[in-house]
């Protein structure tokens, strides 16, 4: 049976979901979440991760680990994708911004849970490839843009939710400005050797509250000046 046989893929995807659930339970003391929402777990089960990695990585697509996607970038570990998505507490009507598209996997997960997803990727080749993969996988409602993600997407702001898949040393002001009152942002914050996955909440008065969730390691967010 081929590694890409639908039955083999289905079994591997289910094993990935089990690994995510086990990892969530293991990290519950840090995250405050003993389990991730059923909606998020179902979204993770539906998205065909093997379509969002290079061909040579497809046999490993459903391992609970990051994988290289070229240009010195990686696709995030499924548990981290699921946790970040869960922390956003997405609603179907949310307008959601992602920074750091890669090949489109996280955007596809977001697209399973809300109707309006906007994603920004700095590397033109990755942005073009992500747009193609998302379209061919049936996520035509996700809009992809090439640009400096630290500046957000001003023309489409404000956003109910923002997810950043690269680590700035500090939270970009433009992203805070583009987050709606009552909104949530999830991102890694810190330098190469010390990063914390951080939940940012903006209350209805526009005041910001931050909470460190879990130590993580992401590529640095490139910020133009």
UniProtKB/TrEMBL annotation:
The keyword Methyltransferase applies. Its EC number is 2.1.1.77. The active site is at residue 76. One of its GO terms (molecular function) is protein-L-isoaspartate (D-aspartate) O-methyltransferase activity. GO terms for biological process: methylation; protein repair. NCBIfam families: pimt, PRK00312.1. Catalyzes the methyl esterification of L-isoaspartyl residues in peptides and proteins that result from spontaneous decomposition of normal L-aspartyl and L-asparaginyl residues. It plays a role in the repair and/or degradation of damaged proteins. This is Protein-L-isoaspartate O-methyltransferase. It comes from Amphiplicatus metriothermophilus. The lineage of its organism: Bacteria, Pseudomonadati, Pseudomonadota, Alphaproteobacteria, Parvularculales.
